[in-house]
Amino acid sequence: MPLISVQELLNAQEKNRAYNLAISGIANVKSGSGHFVRLMVNDAVAKTVKLYDGTDTTGDLFATLDAPGKGIFDVGFGFTNGLTVSAVSASNLTFIYH
Fold first, then answer.
1. Mapping DSSP to helix (H, G, I), strand (E, B) and coil, where does residue 85 land?
2. Which residues contact 98 (CB under 8 A, 6 or more apart)?
3. Which of 37, 41, 44, 92 has the CB geometry, 3.0–4.6 Å to 96, for a possible disulfide?
4. pLDDT digit string (tens) for 46-70?
Protein backbone atom coordinates (compact mmCIF):
# COMPACT_ATOMS: atom_id res chain seq x y z
CA MET A 1 0.00 0.00 0.00
CA PRO A 2 1.52 3.35 -0.99
CA LEU A 3 2.11 5.95 1.67
CA ILE A 4 0.19 9.21 1.38
CA SER A 5 1.00 12.60 2.82
CA VAL A 6 -0.93 14.18 5.68
CA GLN A 7 -2.25 16.78 3.22
CA GLU A 8 -3.59 14.05 0.91
CA LEU A 9 -5.30 12.45 3.90
CA LEU A 10 -6.89 15.75 4.93
CA ASN A 11 -8.03 16.42 1.37
CA ALA A 12 -9.64 12.97 1.20
CA GLN A 13 -11.48 13.54 4.48
CA GLU A 14 -12.98 16.75 3.08
CA LYS A 15 -14.42 14.81 0.14
CA ASN A 16 -16.24 12.17 2.17
CA ARG A 17 -19.82 11.39 1.16
CA ALA A 18 -22.56 9.58 3.06
CA TYR A 19 -25.15 7.07 1.85
CA ASN A 20 -27.95 5.88 4.13
CA LEU A 21 -29.62 2.49 3.67
CA ALA A 22 -32.73 2.30 5.83
CA ILE A 23 -34.07 -1.10 4.65
CA SER A 24 -32.74 -4.55 3.98
CA GLY A 25 -31.55 -5.17 0.46
CA ILE A 26 -28.90 -4.25 -2.06
CA ALA A 27 -27.71 -0.76 -2.99
CA ASN A 28 -25.07 0.59 -5.33
CA VAL A 29 -23.46 3.31 -3.21
CA LYS A 30 -20.88 4.53 -5.76
CA SER A 31 -19.79 3.68 -9.29
CA GLY A 32 -16.10 3.79 -10.13
CA SER A 33 -13.09 3.72 -7.84
CA GLY A 34 -13.04 5.07 -4.32
CA HIS A 35 -12.45 4.33 -0.67
CA PHE A 36 -14.92 3.00 1.89
CA VAL A 37 -14.07 4.78 5.13
CA ARG A 38 -16.62 3.97 7.81
CA LEU A 39 -19.84 2.11 8.60
CA MET A 40 -22.31 3.72 10.98
CA VAL A 41 -24.95 1.41 12.44
CA ASN A 42 -27.84 3.64 13.46
CA ASP A 43 -30.01 1.08 15.22
CA ALA A 44 -29.41 -1.46 17.95
CA VAL A 45 -30.08 -4.63 15.94
CA ALA A 46 -27.15 -6.90 15.06
CA LYS A 47 -26.67 -7.35 11.34
CA THR A 48 -24.40 -8.66 8.61
CA VAL A 49 -23.33 -6.35 5.79
CA LYS A 50 -21.55 -7.51 2.64
CA LEU A 51 -19.44 -5.12 0.56
CA TYR A 52 -18.72 -5.71 -3.13
CA ASP A 53 -16.25 -4.11 -5.52
CA GLY A 54 -18.66 -3.50 -8.39
CA THR A 55 -21.96 -1.96 -9.36
CA ASP A 56 -23.93 -5.00 -8.17
CA THR A 57 -23.42 -8.18 -6.16
CA THR A 58 -21.66 -9.95 -9.05
CA GLY A 59 -18.57 -7.87 -8.23
CA ASP A 60 -15.81 -9.20 -5.98
CA LEU A 61 -16.91 -9.62 -2.36
CA PHE A 62 -14.23 -7.77 -0.40
CA ALA A 63 -15.70 -7.73 3.09
CA THR A 64 -18.37 -9.23 5.28
CA LEU A 65 -18.96 -7.14 8.39
CA ASP A 66 -20.82 -8.50 11.39
CA ALA A 67 -22.00 -5.43 13.27
CA PRO A 68 -23.08 -6.27 16.82
CA GLY A 69 -25.38 -3.25 17.04
CA LYS A 70 -25.33 0.53 17.15
CA GLY A 71 -21.91 2.06 16.64
CA ILE A 72 -19.30 3.46 14.29
CA PHE A 73 -16.87 1.08 12.62
CA ASP A 74 -13.78 2.46 10.86
CA VAL A 75 -12.86 0.10 8.04
CA GLY A 76 -10.78 1.75 5.29
CA PHE A 77 -11.17 -0.43 2.17
CA GLY A 78 -10.33 0.72 -1.34
CA PHE A 79 -12.48 -0.35 -4.31
CA THR A 80 -11.95 -0.14 -8.06
CA ASN A 81 -15.23 -0.71 -9.91
CA GLY A 82 -17.82 0.59 -7.46
CA LEU A 83 -19.20 0.05 -3.99
CA THR A 84 -22.29 -2.11 -3.64
CA VAL A 85 -23.66 -3.10 -0.25
CA SER A 86 -26.01 -5.84 0.82
CA ALA A 87 -27.74 -5.85 4.21
CA VAL A 88 -29.46 -9.13 5.05
CA SER A 89 -31.73 -7.78 7.77
CA ALA A 90 -33.79 -4.62 8.19
CA SER A 91 -31.19 -1.96 8.79
CA ASN A 92 -30.46 1.69 9.25
CA LEU A 93 -26.88 1.99 8.04
CA THR A 94 -24.80 4.93 6.87
CA PHE A 95 -21.82 4.30 4.61
CA ILE A 96 -19.08 6.95 4.53
CA TYR A 97 -16.94 6.86 1.40
CA HIS A 98 -15.03 8.98 -1.08
1. strand
2. 12, 15, 16, 17, 34, 35, 37
3. 37
4. 788 899 999 999 999 988 988 778 8
